[in-house]
Design brief:
244 residues; alpha/beta; Rossmann fold; 6 helices; globular; hydrolase activity
C-alpha cells in the first residue's frame, strides 16, 4: 500500500483562472498559453497523474509563457481518466499499467509537429512533473528535437545503462523529503550520469521538500516551503533559458 505521494492535499486547492486556451491537435486536446510577443521558442509541459486539466499544471504553463515561451500541455492520457485524489492507492499500480510514462513518443511527435508547423517554433524544450518527470527522462533519451529537458521528481527507472545516455541537456529536480524517491536513488542517478552522459546535466535536491512541491500555486504554499518552491521554479526557467 503506497501512501498518498503528495503531502499537500490535492483535493484542497484553490481555483485557478487560466490565461491560455484549449486546442485540438489531431487526436489530442491541449492547453496552450502564448507570451505577449511573438517568439519561435516553445516548451512542452508534461502533466502529472492528475492530468492536463489540473489547475496547478495550468498555472505552470502560464508561468512559462510569462517568461517568453509558447507553452503547451497536451493530454498525454489521450482522453482517458486521470488519477483522482479520491482514488485508492491500492489501485495505483494497476492504473499505471494503462498510463505508461515511457509511452509518450507518439504524442510528443504530434505536439512537436504542431509547434513547428502551426506556431513557427524553432527551438523546443520540455518540462514534466512526477509522472511527467519520468516521461521527460524518457523523451530526453529518445527525441533529439527536444533542445533541453527538466524532470521534476520523476521516479527513477533503472532498467538499463541506456537510461543515462541523454541526448540534450537535462536538469533533475528532487525534494529531500520525497518518500517516493530515496536519496540513494538520486546518488546512483548522479553516479551513472557521470559515467555515461555526454551532455550537460544537473541534479538538485531541495531541502525539506515533498513530492509535488514545485508546482504549487502561491496561495497553496506553506510559508516555510515558499523560498524552495520559488528557487526550484527559477532554476527550471534558468535551465530552459540557457538551452532553449
Amino acid at each position: 500500500q503506497m501512501a498518498d505521494p503528495f503531502l499537500y492535499n490535492t483535493g484542497d486547492r484553490s481555483h485557478y483562472g487560466c490565461l491560455g486556451h484549449e486546442v485540438q491537435i489531431e487526436y489530442l486536446k491541449a492547453y496552450v498559453c502564448r507570451p505577449s510577443f511573438s517568439t519561435d521558442k516553445a516548451v512542452i509541459v508534461v502533466h502529472d497523474v492528475f492530468g492536463w486539466r489540473f489547475p496547478d499544471i495550468r498555472y505552470i504553463v502560464d508561468l512559462i509563457a510569462g517568461h517568453g515561451y509558447i507553452a503547451i500541455c497536451p493530454d498525454f492520457f489521450k482522453g482517458t481518466e486521470p488519477w483522482r485524489s479520491t482514488d485508492h492507492w491500492g489501485d495505483f499500480a494497476d492504473w499505471m499499467k494503462h498510463h505508461d510514462p515511457m509511452k509518450v513518443d507518439k504524442e510528443a511527435d504530434v505536439v512537436l509537429k504542431y509547434l513547428k508547423e502551426q506556431c513557427g517554433a524553432k527551438k523546443i524544450g520540455v518540462v514534466g512533473f512526477s509522472w511527467g518527470g519520468m516521461a521527460v527522462h524518457h523523451l530526453m533519451l529518445k527525441n533529439p528535437q527536444l533542445a533541453a529537458g527538466v524532470s521534476l521528481y520523476g521516479r527513477i527507472i533503472r532498467d538499463s545503462e541506456e537510461r543515462y545516455n541523454l541526448l540534450n541537456p537535462t536538469f533533475f529536480v528532487f525534494g529531500e523529503k520525497d518518500h517516493t524517491i530515496s536519496l540513494d536513488q538520486i546518488f546512483l542517478l548522479e553516479e551513472k550520469l557521470k559515467q555515461y552522459c555526454k551532455v550537460s546535466y544537473k541534479i538538485k535536491v531541495y531541502p525539506g521538500q515533498v513530492h509535488g512541491f514545485a508546482q504549487l500555486k502561491p496561495e497553496d504554499m506553506k510559508p516555510d516551503d515558499k523560498p524552495y518552491i520559488e528557487e526550484a521554479r527559477k532554476d527550471m526557467i534558468d535551465w530552459i533559458k540557457m538551452f532553449v
